[in-house]
Fold:
Amino acid sequence: MEHAVEIFVSSFTRILIPGILVSIPLTLISFFFALVIAVIVAMIRYANIKVLSEICKFYVWVIRGTPLLVQLFFMYYGLPKIGVFWSSPFICAVVVFALNEGAYASETIRGALNSVPDGQIEAGYCVGMNFVQIMLRIVLPQALRAAVPALMNGLIGMVKDTSLASNITVTEMLFQTKTIITTTYEPFILYIEVALIYLIFSTVLSRVQVIVEKKMNAQVGKAS
Amino acid sequence: MIKVRNVTKKIDNLEVLKGVDLSIEKGQVISVIGPSGSGKTTLLRCMNYLTVADTGEMEFDGVSYDMAKTSKKDIEAIRKKTGFVFQSYNLFLNKTALENVTEGLIVARKMSKDKAKEIAMSALRKVGMEDRTNHYPSQLSGGQQQRVAIARALALNPEIIYFDEPTSALDPELIGEVNNVIKELANEKMTMIIVTHEMNFARSVSDKIMFMDEGRVIEEGTPDEIFNHPKEKRVKEFLEAIIRS
Structure:
């Protein structure tokens, strides 16, 4: 058992460092692009823009209907067969995670857009604003506020999903853990250890969610 | 100032408007009364293109428009001259009272922030909301929200304001504060069309009353003519039913 404690302690920073240097940046960068994609897709579908709306529907359908792991494998191992190469597995992972989360988040935001009462849109027209101005200044800010809890769910989910990137040789936490296991033969301790670190990351994000929600509620004069 | 003729509108196969005429002169106040579902609100919405009429002509300041196919540009021009106050206030919930009023001035009219704020403050003063300018709609009572909504319409300096049942969503004790603001506007000769269920208010504030039922104007005249000597049986029945209640 002393042996186990020793391995636990000595491995901690070895797992944590790729967590901080790879897993967290992978999550945050992917999530940022996912949000950009989600807002654009949600607005196109909300405004029901011809053709584009159909393309967006197709995108959401494909992404939601196929496993994330299959998407990763296809993009990293499949695409090079038709001449598309990635300069690093990290970039490939960012693209896959952003596209994947973007599809889910677009539905969250679309729902939130629909929840903003139509009356405010009419009032916007009556004071002379156009559709784009009303969307950007009135509807979208309220929708994003309503979407925060569900979006944060997505973010927390994504921290954990980044572990899948170990399958395409991204040297994130799980990749590192597996590497350590090959030399120490201590899967029991090391998997608990990596799970614990994921738990810490998720807990921090849950706290961030509370802060973000408070801040956004203050913007409409509501106590949270 | 405005004349509309033969406005018709079908919604889901129901004829909501069956050929309505209306004309209003500058400085006049018209109240549109009648039972629920008579088409009053739809008429008002068609006049501001929130609902597009199936047929109808509108003459606004001497320019004629086909209400069924008015261009986007013309709609913008007409809306620029009109204010609209909704039954459910429809304030922008992510904006303070002041921002609700400045929003249209800054974003649509491209006014400087300072100038917009100055105009907004004077509009908010007019409706007695100058000490609540930094409150969000969720922090205001219904009556206060509706007064901000009136200020929002006023700030744009419209030629006419349409009121769509402005007090119907309010608690009884809050109706007075909103009606007083409208009365004051009437005294200042603001041109207004008011859809309302409040007969006493309509009687005291209006130059002309229009009674609508089932998509038609049944009778119109001065408040005295409509309330004291109605000619049409349907109007008599309606008013008697209200008095009895």
